[in-house]
Amino acid sequence: MKKSFLILALASMAIISCKKNETATTSSSTATTEAVGSGQEAVVDSDSAPDIVKLAVSNKDLSTLVTAVQKAGLTTSLSNAGPFTVFAPTNEAFDKLPKGTVDDLLKPENNNKLNDILGHHTYVGVIKTDQMNDGQNLGMVDGKTITIKMVDGKPTINGNVNIIASVPAANGIVHVVDGVILPQ
């Protein structure tokens, strides 16, 4: 009798364990499929610091930049591990460009030009403002350089684009800037 009870108990535990494992496998498979199918930017993680794209999306003053990143197909790239330093122009910075420039850049036939401009705002590596020095050149993703110039003790890009704020991200840092940095 004791032997039968022990066998029955073990069999019950095995069945329950299999059902729990099946449920867990199904749930994790679904989550994994969703994340893989939509790219790194689709991973839901409310515990970790947001990545560069999530930071930009959460700031309404960067909505033009977010639209440009999406149109250029760079959302996944800027959501990956990095590290990256992104000089993120505000909507007002984009508004300073000649009328129609942004709309023109967002057209599919100008995707290469848009990628070049966005690449000119991205540095591979993390550089904080206290690490910036007068005359320092940074090689950007587009293959060209920007120059850090100190103006009134504060770093600027090429002497005319000011850093308004700097926000650390899970995969780098975002320097919000008041101008669009155009490749020369």
UniProtKB/TrEMBL annotation:
InterPro entries: Adhesion/Biosynth-related, FAS1_dom_sf, FAS1_domain
UniProt xrefs under Gene3D superfamilies: FAS1 domain
Taxonomy of the source species: Bacteria, Pseudomonadati, Bacteroidota, Flavobacteriia, Flavobacteriales
SMART domains per the UniProt record, alphabetical: FAS1
PANTHER family listed in its UniProt record: FI05614P (PTHR10900:SF124), PERIOSTIN-RELATED (PTHR10900)
Pfam family, any one: Fasciclin
The protein's name in its UniProt record: Fasciclin domain-containing protein
Positions of the FAS1 domain: 49-181
Organism expressing this protein natively: Chryseobacterium suipulveris
Superkingdom of the organism of origin: Bacteria
